[in-house]
Amino acid sequence: MSAAEIAVGLLILVGGFLSMAAGIGIVRFPDVLTRLHAATKPQVLGLATVLVAIVLQVPTWGVLTTAVLIMTFQLLTQPMTAHMLGRAAYRSDHVRQDLLIEDELGRDIAEHDQGGVNPGR
After folding, report:
1. First CA to last CA distance, the chain
2. Chain mean pLDDT for the chain
3. Contact status, residue 39 vs residue 26, Cβ threshold 8 Å
4. Contact 29, 2 (CB under 8 A)
């Protein structure tokens, strides 16, 4: 067994652990915002480690460019998806207010409703 094969095995184990942690976080965390955090951060890192393992195992330009494209799209879509889901959950009252440290979105919505932010636009 070569050092590259050991590195690939370890990277896949780390990726699997991070993806499992994301799944457990989704089930165990108490509200939407913490579940979104658990769904995005470890899942993206787990995918990155698995993609690095694939590139190490099959080091061709086709595999490398595919892995880079997959990771780029994940990094572009995951934060935006979590942000939009968080805003939708907040507006539909699915966020536990007692867990918020600072409610910036609530303040911004209240200012907007009162006409305090750019009323002419």
Report:
1. 66
2. 89
3. yes
4. no
Whether residue 37 is predicted with pLDDT greater than 90 in this model: the reply is no
The pLDDT of 48-61, averaged and rounded, is: 96
- Coil, strand or helix: which one is 63? helix
C-alpha to C-alpha distances, 58 to 4, 10, 51, 117, nearest whole angstrom: 11, 16, 10, 54
Q: Scanning the structure block, which residue is given the tokens 């507006």?
A: 91
Q: Is the pTM here over 0.85, yes or no?
A: no
CB 110 within 8 A of CB 104: no
Nearest CA to 44 among 63, 66, 72? 72
